[in-house]
Design brief:
By secondary structure, the protein is α/β, with parallel strands linked by helices. The protein contains 13 helices and nine strands.
């Protein structure tokens, strides 16, 4: 038997109603923990308002639905009300669990994970393995700097250049407890959160869009930057290479990641030709990446060929080694040494 709504309400109106209800359900489920879930009463009000909208658009005398049709709509409303009731109960359980976990963190003096939107800004998603990925990043960095004969724990003063919300630096403190750790990023919101919550791990400062920083000459013996030079225009890259040379000590090592050959295929043919010609390409690939993650418009996408790195970056540092897809099987790593 067909649903009473099918004879009463035009298909386009029914589709709109179903889409609105589905969106409301997804929004309530997605935000159940991060925010207060919508109370059941509010859901009923919203659904009733949509019911009134359907009635106003119903065919018939004065917009009055045919006899018996309203019962079908009310049945749908009752079913949705029941679903929202279940969601509210699940939200209550989740809220209780989160509160208990937060208590355990405070009781054991453990820092909280960064908020969802800061994690998304760094990794592009909200995933269970965000904190654990700090360990895999350190393993990748140690492998990238292996030609130096050292590990991260061997350095005295380390800068996380483009630290985001502290994904790697948080983990590094447990691996290199004797090292002085510093983090800098253009994301002032992330740095503010780190200063408030992760002060035990290091010293955090907001980076200017262009140099100089406030760091002293020759301050660091190791600097790493994950997915920083992958987003800067060429003139800004030269400026930052010069600044990194200034703030590192003679003999210091640096590790930077780049978009290598794996990513060239994402470029359309005319842009790929420019990359092949110059060894470097930077541009907005149509999505305004910077704006999409609440960062400046200059924060787009850059691609480097290895010979370009050896030629251009070699004017600032010794290019010791380049490893393809070393960083999370996603980006190439470049090991540099301060002359």
């Amino acid at each position: 038997m067909s649903h009473p709504l099918r004879h009463l309400i035009p298909q386009s109106v029914r589709d709109t109603l179903n889409e609105k209800i589905a969106n409301a359900t997804r929004e309530a489920a997605r935000d159940a923990v991060a925010q207060q879930a919508r109370p059941l009463a509010d859901a009923q009000v919203a659904l009733t308002a949509r019911l009134d909208e359907i009635v106003r658009h119903a065919p018939g005398a004065g917009g009055i639905p045919a006899p018996g049709a309203l019962a079908g709509i009310e049945a749908q409303l009752a079913a949705l009300t029941s679903q929202f009731g279940q969601l509210r109960a699940e939200h209550s359980d989740l809220s209780t669990l989160v509160a208990q976990i937060q208590y355990v963190l405070r009781e054991n003096d453990l820092p909280p994970p960064p908020p969802k939107h800061l994690q998304v800004r760094v990794c592009g998603g909200y995933v269970a393995g965000f904190l654990d990925s700090g360990f895999s990043a350190i393993r990748d960095i140690d492998a990238a700097i292996a030609p130096s004969g050292r590990t991260m724990a061997d350095f005295r003063r380390i800068l996380d250049f483009g630290c985001g919300c502290g994904r790697v630096l948080r983990t590094l403190k447990s691996i290199a407890p004797g090292s002085a750790l510093y983090g800098t990023d253009i994301d002032g919101e992330a740095i503010g959160w780190l200063q408030k919550n992760y002060g035990r791990f290091g010293e955090f400062t907001v980076a200017p869009h262009r140099p100089p920083t406030a760091y002293a000459d020759g301050m660091f013996d190791f600097v790493y930057g994950i997915s920083v030079f992958t987003h800067l225009p060429e003139d800004m890259q030269y400026q930052w290479l010069e600044e990194l040379r200034r703030i590192t000590a003679p003999g210091a090592f640096l590790m930077m990641s780049t978009h290598g050959a794996k990513h060239y295929e994402t470029l359309p043919p005319e842009l790929r030709a420019k990359l092949e010609e110059r060894g470097f390409y930077y541009g907005d690939l149509g999505a305004n990446y910077g704006a999409s993650i609440q960062l400046p418009d200059f924060y787009q996408t850059s691609f480097h060929k290895h010979d370009y790195i050896r030629r251009e970056w070699g004017r600032y540092f010794d290019v010791v080694d380049i490893q393809t897809l070393r960083m999370d099987q996603h980006q190439d790593t470049v090991l540099l040494r301060r002359r």
